[in-house]
Amino acid sequence: MARNVSHSWHFLILLALPMLPLPALGQSTLTGAMLFSTTSTGAWNDYAELNTVGGDGWWDLWLALNPDATSPVNGPTDAEAGISIPLETGHTYKYYFFGSGPCCTSSESYTALNLFFNGGTTTPGISVAGALNSPAFTPDSNTTITLAAVPVAGSGTSFSIANGVVVVLTGYQANEPAAVPGDVAQPFDFSPGDSLSFYGSFSLQVWPAAALDLSQASGAPYTTFSATGTGFSRGEPVDLFAGQTSTPSLIATATAGSAGSFSVSAVVPQHPYGPVDIYAVGATSHKLGAASLFVDPGLHTSPGTAAPGGTTTASVFGFGGGETVDIYWNNPRQLLGTAIANAKGSSSLGITVPSSASPGIQGVIGIGQTTAAIGIGSVTVE
């Protein structure tokens, strides 16, 4: 299969990493891709599925090395829709995809991508979702689909670890049909038909693998967790990042000991509800450790003490990006107001303590109206 390779090692913030001779560390092989429409939370909505499998009933997803659909990777016939792309350590890859049908139109405004590796067809190695026409995406742990469009849990990661390498999805965007590139694909032929094609791209970067373990599987923003890494070079600096690789947040730094391991405390960053990738990058070995942490919602009040009829501010975080969050007094249950979360799932709202509130610690609850996520805080009533 044709490959688009760029011999560069850059992890955005670590833009200055030099290219070094790399030992033979193994490789991973991209053997399947499934693109489908979703809800705003990344859940498969049983509509518009395209894959790189020939001979089945699902319309084909076509890949090429150029944005104008030249230098095709698969096709041009349905029998040639399959892919088998070796992904080598120290290389970056970018593929442009094209398709026919209703997958990517303004009426289906969210899409998701599952990538499958090393011959797997049922368990995605990488699962992400994002809004149509936007370069922003997040790991998807919601209900997605196999290459045969059977419901399956998404991987919840933008990375896949196998055979001593970490494959990281560094970019993904699906776009609705447009005059450019125009009409380039049909459901079962990679050739012009009678309508404009939807299009997009995804990018991969391949790192030699180290190991990264987290002390907990989930946590709300601003809570502390610990990260332990092994397999790095003796004495090298290691940076810990969180989030999409296009906009990663540096959350901790460490130095590997004589055995190439480290342990460091970090704080869960502001991030929308759902999984977030955590990466540990060795400054000299260029090894990458990867793990996933599920971001839960939280709620904090300030001041934390108020009299009946008094006011305080409820800050919510870890909810869905842009979602409405209803804030309730817990006992007796009553709606205190509504906040709109920003892109990172955070917001704040001034609330009034009910005049009937009983003295003592009383609950304040935030409920996301899209994700149904719940954050719990409290106010001490004087």
Please give a structural write-up:
With 382 residues, the chain is an all-beta fold. It has 3 domains: 5-208, no CATH class; 211-295, Immunoglobulin-like, CATH 2.60.40.1930; 298-381, Macroglobulin (MG2) domain (Immunoglobulin-like). Helix content is 0%, strand content 49%. It is built from no helices and 31 strands. The strands form 7 sheets. Strands 2, 3, 4, 6, 8, 9 and 10 form a 7-stranded mixed β-sheet that branches. Strands 1, 5, 7, 13, 14 and 15 form a 6-stranded antiparallel β-sheet that branches. The protein has a 5-stranded mixed β-sheet with strand order 17-23-22-19-20, with no helix packed on it. Strand 22 and strand 23 form a beta hairpin. It is flat.
Q: What is this structure's SSE topology?
A:
Layout (H helix, E strand, L loop, with lengths): L4 E2 L20 E12 L5 E8 L7 E2 L1 E3 L20 E4 L3 E8 L10 E8 L8 E6 L6 E2 L3 E3 L5 E3 L5 E4 L2 E11 L22 E11 L2 E4 L3 E2 L4 E7 L6 E6 L6 E7 L6 E6 L6 E9 L5 E8 L2 E5 L2 E2 L4 E7 L6 E6 L4 E7 L6 E6 L7 E9 L5 E8 L1
Parallel strand pairs: 3-4, 17-23, 25-31
Antiparallel strand pairs: 1-7, 2-3, 2-6, 2-8, 5-7, 7-15, 8-9, 9-10, 11-12, 13-14, 14-15, 16-18, 18-21, 19-20, 19-22, 22-23, 24-26, 26-29, 27-28, 27-30, 30-31
